[in-house]
Amino acid sequence: MGDFYQNGIITTLHNLSHRPLEALEKELLAFSKVRPMALILPCLYSELETEAMPNILEHLKQVPYLSEIIIGLDRANEAQYRHALEFFSALPQPHRVLWNDGPRLREIDRLLKREELSPDQPGKGRNVWFCMGYALASGRAESIAMHDCDIVTYDREMLARLIYPVANPNFNYEFCKGFYARIAEGRINGRVSRLLVTPLLRALKKVFGPLDYLEYLDSYRYPLAGEFSFRRDVMSDIRIPSDWGLEIGVLSEMKRNYSNNRLCQVDIADVYDHKHQDLSLDNDQTGLSKMSIDITKAIFRKLATNGIVFNQETFRTVKATYFRIALDFVETYRNDAEINGLTLDVHQEEQAVELFARNIMNAGLHFLEHPMETPFISSWNRVISAYPDVQQLLLDAVEADMAEYS
Q1: Mean pLDDT calculated for residue range 358-373
Q2: pLDDT at residue 2 greater than cutoff 60
Q3: Has keyword Transferase (predicted)?
Q4: Count of CB atoms within 10 A of residue 95's CB?
């Protein structure tokens, strides 16, 4: 059971009483009359073949309050897209599957690329961005949730708690971030959040002082969670990264666009487990190594927009400060694991810290060497300004794909 302590500068909504799911869903069904709700599912075709996605589908089939489910499908050929349409046809709610690799959506992508408005690289950020564009175009929902498709411990209560803060008309939240304990199979997981993000934020506060942005990020209990919800107007003006910096980028945009009292985080699960990435000690182009570089660059970029000036000496100081704080965290987590009867491999934890420390320098050098890099995807407001009919093109393309291939 969670506590009621409010830390940081955003509201934390706890799970104090394990309220029955039926009561939550009854309220959400009533809210849906005022604020229709949708769910965005960015997924790879390969995730349809895992144990996680069929279970997610079974739970979603029982959700009574959704007006629409938007599935962004990546890395799928025609046969796989046909299979995905059949797979998701079990959903009783209105739903659309965006075939991101199909010729129609690729044509829209090429149209936007002429004005440098479309993401340069494939990935989750690009998938989410197109799903947001479709949600804006369809106009069927006022409150939208998003979560990953590799959650092996999924339960529909997770969705109910995630969307409730932005669906309740008595609340004024524009954005809500989910959090949970990353515990599975007797181990503490979530290394990038525990061993990179939190100690890096603490190190940056030591070096630069208690900046409001750093205090803000440090207020989130699980800043890298892929589960969040928002009101529809949030999607119009948000500029998100297309790489692993997506979650940090979204939080940064919320800080830029809204006051702290319009933002919150909510406890959505006692147990959470999903697909784990390799540490990738020898390859910084994949796994947690690439993830750590992308996330660190996202933080550095945002600090630069706030007036922080970086140089090589600054990054060396940040790295050294981070390293000491992170090693202390390893001891903290070892003790936390032991008192709870969990296991934690100190050697592997310190290997991760050493890798992340190197990658803080790598991210810093990349930042200095590429001053003209524009890693953010254009906002949909800008896209619509350049191509006023793009929303109708997107709606027509998705409908035509589903009609032709189902």
Answers
A1: 90
A2: no
A3: yes
A4: 20
Residues in the chain, how many? Answer: 406
Please give the sequence-ordered ranges of beta strands (E in DSSP) within 55-173, or none if there are none: 66-74, 95-99, 143-146
Q: From the options 3.40.800.10, 3.90.550.10, 1.10.290.10, 3.30.70.60, give the CATH code of 11-405.
A: 3.90.550.10
pLDDT on residue 41: 98
Grade residue 288 by pLDDT with cuts at 50, 70 and 90.
confident
197 close to 223: Cβ distance less than 8 angstroms: yes
Q: Which of 214 and 184 is assigned the larger pLDDT?
A: 214
Q: In whole numbers, what is the pLDDT of the chain averaged over residues?
A: 93
Instruction: Give the pLDDT confidence score for residue 279 in this predicted structure.
Output: 72
What's the CA gap between 195 and 182, in Å, rounded?
13
Sign of CA dihedral 388, 389, 393, 395: positive
- Residue 98 near residue 73 (C-beta atoms within 8 A): yes
DSSP state of 45: G
Cβ count within 10 A of residue 275: 13
Checking DSSP bridges between strand 143-146 and strand 175-180, what pairing results, if any?
unpaired
Matching residue, tokens 């955003």: 10
Residue 16 Cα distances to 240, 269, 364, angstroms: 33, 12, 41
Residue 319 C-alpha from the chain's centroid: 26
